[in-house]
Design a protein that fits this description.
single chain; 80% helix; 26 helices
């Protein structure tokens, strides 16, 4: 059939005749319907004429019409009763299949949101990261950044997870993260307005289908930006198709007396019990679907179909504000202590907001409902005498009221609590206590507050920050040594720790380099300028050491995954060079405490020569093992790679020592 259709469409002449044929069929169908209608009218006329030829025809015709009307009324009544019984039966038979349709529609909605968010983040990822880094220096800037970012990517969960990852990497301070999280709470309310206006008032499914059709071909283009934008448009279309299915899958409770009675019983619950119950329902729902936007879409659907009254829908929204904090806490569970504190702030901030809203809930919901009623009555009066008649422009005012409640609550919560951020900071520090230096390694202890009054004092802070940088590298060396030679039960955990710390070294180098660049713009002496070059050289070498340590860990991981035979005795053949490297890294960390320009590199040079000799000796040993068949080729290659990595670590250690001596 597809081949025949493509043949028709490819030929203009056949294409024209194809449309002529379709038009003829439609005309024939319409003519048949008209003829049938005309025939019926003709029969009526004939019957009427026959009645005229009968004596007392008017009385008999009147009696016949009365009889027919009575029969018709009886038929309609019986038909209505049958329809009601059928509708009631269908409502009662709502079960597993219908539930799976709701689950599928919800899955489509969440998938569309994820595709849309991912596409936009990839299209504007670098700019978003730059915004998060540069606009979070003030509390208001952080709030606006969170608002802008969440409005753009339509996912507060994505924003908060991004914030947690940035805090984990040291790119964002804890106070900066607080502002972004508060702004994200406001930005996520835009989703409710989109769903309330487009999802229920406009038949957007045909438009969504067209958007998907237009965007789909661009998914295969080589231009990354176009492909990412097409992915965003595709996700937008899928999101609203999912919403449409969700709306259609949730049955109207008017067709199910049992559920209607259940809902009426809920309404008769004591006020505070019903309020707390639906807050819990909203929280659990958001935890299950892992998306406050998806939970909001479900709430709007239940409200539109009459399952939940307006006040309880507002209570569900409060619960969703609590449930959405779970995502950030999950992301922070494997992050450092600062990221955990940022996630705890999100939870505490939203919980306090829900508490004060519970106190004012009756007054607040009446105020919101009254505001929407005022707008509703205004438009009803405006269009009362027009073509719209009694039909209001705001057809589903409860949906608009719920979106307004969501937005107003979050804005007021931010305006109320933003002044207490310093107290929140003290609170989360008490909630998540440090267990040692390992937890604090991503924090900028000395340069996070910006430049000091003089360049020399700022330079001293940069040097102190470099010492903390060295501590991270030293810990990575210890992690790698444990991975290679201590036979850990969970090597993946150690590799993950090395990877996390390698990202920290990348970010520390960038931040220290940026700080030093700002110092160089100040009035600084020639000696200070030389120290800036030395510190930048030290940071560069330590960052390279982090890269080598991670690469070595990946080499060992690949050997394990590919079943390359590397026993403990085999690894012991190269242990001596890594022991020497760890020893020299510890000494390097001690030397970082020395004033730049006063360090003696003689001991470091001697140690570098020893590492080079060990490299040559171990390489020969490995080659002999391969020749004698004691080692197979994959094992030998892995060992040689690790030996070479150890020697390169030694090279960067001597470079750091030379920079400390003022030679670089």
């Amino acid at each position: 059939m597809n081949l025949r259709m493509s043949t028709i469409l490819s030929n203009p002449l056949r294409f024209k005749y194809y449309y002529i044929t379709v038009f003829a069929l439609l005309f024939f169908t319409f003519s048949s319907y008209a003829n049938n209608t005309g025939s019926d009218q003709h029969v009526i006329v004939e019957n009427t004429a026959q009645f005229e030829n009968i004596d007392d025809s008017k009385q008999e015709l009147l009696a016949l019409l009365q009889t027919n009307n009575a029969s018709a009324t009886t038929a309609v009544s019986e038909g209505s009763k049958a329809a009601e019984k059928k509708k009631e039966k269908e409502g009662l038979n709502w079960g597993v299949w219908e539930f799976l349709q709701i689950v599928g529609a919800l899955g489509l909605f969440i998938y569309g949101m994820k595709v849309m968010s991912d596409g936009l983040q990839k299209a504007a990822g670098k700019k978003l990261r730059q915004v998060l880094r540069t606009m979070t220096k003030t509390r208001l800037g952080g709030i606006l950044t969170g608002l802008f970012t969440t409005t753009l990517i339509q996912s507060s969960s994505a924003t908060t997870v991004m914030v947690v990852s940035f805090v984990n990497a040291g790119l964002l301070t804890l106070l900066g993260a607080f502002g972004v999280i508060m702004g994200a709470n406001i930005g996520t309310t835009i989703t409710a307005w989109l769903v309330a206006i487009l999802g229920f008032k406009v038949s957007i499914t045909p438009i969504a289908i067209v958007l998907i059709g237009l965007a789909f071909p661009f998914l295969f283009t080589s231009n990354n930006r176009r492909r990412n934008i097409a992915e965003f448009i595709l996700g937008f279309g899928i999101l609203f198709i999912g919403l449409s299915y969700l709306k259609d899958s949730v049955p109207d409770i008017k067709g199910n007396p049992d559920i209607l009675a259940f809902v009426e019983n809920l309404r008769s619950l004591p006020y505070i019990v019903g309020l707390l119950l639906f807050i819990c329902i909203g929280t659990i729902l958001t935890v299950i679907v892992q998306s406050s936007s998806a939970a909001m879409a479900i709430t709007l659907t239940l409200l539109a179909q009459g399952w939940v009254p307006f006040e309880f829908a507002c209570a569900m929204v409060l619960g969703e504000n609590i449930g959405t904090t779970i995502t950030a806490n999950i992301a922070a569970s494997i992050a450092n202590i600062t990221a955990k504190r940022a996630a705890r702030f999100h939870t505490v901030f939203n919980l306090i907001g829900v508490v004060w809203m519970i106190i004012l809930f009756p007054v607040f919901t009446k105020m919101i409902s009254g505001s929407i009623d005022g707008v509703y009555n205004f438009f009803t009066g405006l269009f009362d005498q027009g073509a719209y008649g009694k039909k209001s422009v705001l057809k589903d005012k409860d949906l608009m009221a719920l979106a307004l409640f969501h937005t107003t609550f979050n804005i007021l919560n931010v305006l109320l609590l933003m002044w207490f951020v310093p107290y929140f900071e003290k609170l989360v520090y008490r909630m998540v206590k440090s267990s040692g230096d390992d937890d604090e390694e991503t924090e900028l202890k000395y340069i996070g507050g910006g430049l000091l009054d003089t360049a020399e004092l700022s330079l001293e802070n940069a040097r102190k920050e470099t010492i903390d940088f060295g501590k991270v590298v030293y810990k990575m060396t210890g992690n790698l040594t444990s991975l290679l030679f201590a036979e850990p039960k969970r090597p993946g955990k150690l590799i993950g720790k090395i990877k996390e710390r390698e990202e920290i070294t990348d970010n520390k180098e960038i931040m220290i380099a940026n700080f030093l660049a700002r110092i160089s713009e100040m009035d600084i002496s020639a000696d200070g300028s030389h120290k800036i070059q030395s510190i930048m050289s030290i940071c560069n070498d330590m960052e390279r050491m982090g890269d080598i340590l991670l690469s070595t860990a990946f080499t060992y991981e690949a050997a394990l995954e590919n079943d390359v035979p590397i026993s403990a005795s085999t690894m012991n053949t190269i242990k001596s060079i890594f022991d020497k490297v760890q020893e020299r890294t510890k000494k390097m960390l001690e030397d970082l405490e020395i004033e730049i320009g006063t360090h003696d590199v003689w001991e470091a040079q001697k140690a570098e020569e020893e590492i080079n000799k060990l490299r040559d000796s171990l390489q020969k040993k490995v080659f002999k093992g391969i020749e004698k068949g004691e080692l197979n080729s994959p094992t030998g290659i892995a060992l040689l790679d690790m030996i070479g990595s150890a020697e390169r670590l030694g090279d960067h250690i001597i470079n750091v020592n030379e920079a400390l001596a003022g030679l670089k």
